[in-house]
Specification:
Layout: H1 2-29, H2 34-55, H3 63-89, H4 94-101, H5 104-110, H6 121-138, H7 146-169, H8 175-197, H9 205-233, H10 236-240, H11 246-257, H12 264-281, E1 302-305, E2 308-311
Helix pairs in contact: 1-4, 1-9, 1-11, 2-8, 2-9, 3-7, 3-8, 4-11, 5-7, 6-12, 8-9
Length: 312
């Protein structure tokens, strides 16, 4: 029952929560410096997640696994959001940031060999089409700057490499402690960068507080607990392909909530990116048999890409 609920409700919930993070982030950095926003987000969410993990008696990693967990957390949290939030501060739109982030399945697929996964030709086609959609929409942003683009690329690499690193070195870690450590280890780095910047002015306390509540509860806790649970039970290619849907949802949210415009090429790019999601999601038909049956979720090492089932 639990596995069925994750299969049905997990992907749309992840897409909606992840998309809303761009809107909350733009509202937050409009009220306070980006590193101050990140420090508050990481500090509050990290503390809450540590308490949650302790109360639920989650297993904490040790030794090398702990070290790998901290590295993955810095990549997925500090590098990704540090770059994206700074890009937001440079007035890069939510649609563009989410579209660049939508390239994560392509980057992850390139490094999929490190996980012993295979990617089908149809999935590669889908990834390519999705990347074309991202490029099409980005060219429609007349105010898009080179520094903003570079920041988005850094954020993309942080998410993608962090995802691959986590799946490669900490595949069995408890999502509760993994998420708590990912976020908590990033808080001191964000705090140090905020201190170095020397700007602690909050221009809109109400907007800052509102965005912080949403980012902590929905984005940092809800979205990453769900993401890490998916990464534990599913292969990285299956999880990452959902990110192709996020740009379209983000663009509509940004248009409705904060009034960011939807230009024709942006809409066309979103449509092409969604087509890439559909192509990347389809798998070649496989004859039914014991080797293709789903196994219990208690086997987290199972890797399934296309019609092949592998163990690593």
């Amino acid at each position: 029952m639990e596995n069925r609920l994750l299969d049905v409700a997990g992907p749309p919930a992840l897409i909606l929560m992840w998309s809303s993070a761009f809107i909350a982030g733009i509202i937050g950095v409009g009220a306070a410096p980006p590193m101050l926003v990140l420090f508050a987000r990481f500090g509050i969410a990290g503390a809450l997640l540590i308490v949650f993990a302790l109360l639920t008696r989650a297993v904490w990693p040790r030794g090398r696994v702990l070290a790998h967990t901290l590295v993955a957390g810095l990549l997925m949290q500090m590098v990704q959001f540090g770059a994206f939030y700074t890009a937001m501060h440079e007035h890069v739109t939510a649609a563009v940031i989410s579209l660049v982030q939508g390239l994560s399945p392509v980057v992850i697929a390139v490094f999929a060999g490190a996980l012993g996964e295979s990617v089908s030709a149809r999935q590669w086609l889908g990834f390519g089409v999705g990347g074309l959609g991202v490029g099409l929409a980005v060219t429609d942003q007349s105010s898009f700057s080179l520094p903003g683009l570079l920041l988005c690329v850094v954020g993309l690499l942080g998410l993608s490499l962090g995802t691959v690193y986590q799946k490669r070195f900490t595949p069995e870690i408890d999502p509760r402690t993994g998420t708590a450590l990912h976020i908590a280890v990033s808080a001191p780095f964000a705090g140090a960068m905020a201190w170095a910047g020397g700007d602690f002015h909050i221009a809109g306390p109400a907007r800052f507080a509102g965005s912080m509540v949403w980012m902590v509860l929905v984005n940092s806790i809800g979205a990453f607990l769900l993401l890490n649970t998916m990464l534990q039970r599913w292969d990285t290619t299956r999880v990452s392909r959902f990110f192709f849907a996020i740009p379209a949802v983000t663009a509509v949210m940004a248009w409705l909530v904060i009034g960011q415009p939807l230009r024709p090429l942006t809409i066309a790019g979103l449509a092409v990116g969604l087509l890439g999601l559909v192509l990347a999601s389809r798998r070649a038909a496989a004859a039914p048999g014991p080797e293709h049956e789903l196994e219990p979720a208690a086997a987290p090492h199972r890797i399934e890409v296309g019609p092949h089932v592998q163990r690593v």
